[in-house]
Write a structure and sequence with these properties.
7 strands; Ubiquitin-like (UB roll); about 210 residues; TAT_signal; 5-stranded mixed beta sheet; oxidoreductase; two-stranded antiparallel ribbon; alpha+beta; (2Fe-2S)-binding protein; 2 iron, 2 sulfur cluster binding; iron-sulfur
């Protein structure tokens, strides 16, 4: 079968048509890419970021009034660690599942990665740093030290804060109640048995 699409000598063959179409498409593609490259810097420079800017907040942390300029989207965890240099609470999961960032807010244990800094204004915030007065440790971290209830240490601040909150609420809490109080905290090093020993000591000594 002939490849000619027309009957005259001036007819275009299918091969010629496809070749010509391919060259035209390649040229158009190159031209489009060149134009996009030329326009990209201008488009980038013209881009405008939208959203509320930083605002001044005052937080009551461990008995001290601290101020910082933070964006409304900043969590209490990030405000404490990155803006106020209160680093006892740790960032581990950042998803409200591990408990390493636990702090007390008005006496209640709270995952600080789940609370906006703006929401903590006017509230009494206590972190693991509040469990040290001078050279004296609070009984909870004391029990952890005696029982060697920590390894890497990242989870420890969250555990001791959660236990302190439970004992503040009920100084006569039982072992089972204290274990339930830290059910939302995870120790990736697996020192749970030593923590149970620390809890036993706290219950025997009355927290």
């Amino acid at each position: 079968m002939s490849e000619a699409t027309g009957s005259g000598r001036g007819g275009i063959t299918r091969r010629g048509f496809l070749t010509g179409s391919g060259l035209a498409a390649a040229a158009a593609s190159r031209l489009t890419a060149d134009l996009a490259a030329e326009q990209a810097p201008a488009a980038r420079d013209a881009a405008v970021a939208f959203g509320p800017g930083p605002v001044r907040i005052e937080l009551l942390v461990n008995g001290r009034k601290l101020t910082a300029q933070v964006e409304p989207r900043v969590t209490l965890l990030d405000a404490l660690r990155n803006y106020l240099d209160v680093t006892g609470c740790k960032r581990v999961c950042d998803r409200g599942t591990c408990g390493a960032c636990t702090v007390m807010v008005d006496g209640r244990p709270v995952y600080s990665c789940t609370l906006l800094a703006l929401e903590a204004r006017g509230k009494d915030i206590r972190t693991a740093e509040s469990l040290i007065v001078g050279n004296r440790l609070d009984p909870v971290p004391q029990a952890f030290v005696r029982c060697d209830a920590q390894q890497c240490g990242f989870c420890t601040p969250g555990f001791v804060v959660a236990l302190r909150a439970a004992l503040d609420k009920n100084p006569q809490a039982t072992e089972a109640e204290l274990e339930a109080a830290v059910a939302g905290n995870i120790c990736r090093c697996g020192t749970y048995e030593q923590m149970r020993q620390a809890i036993v000591q706290l219950v025997r000594k009355g927290g």
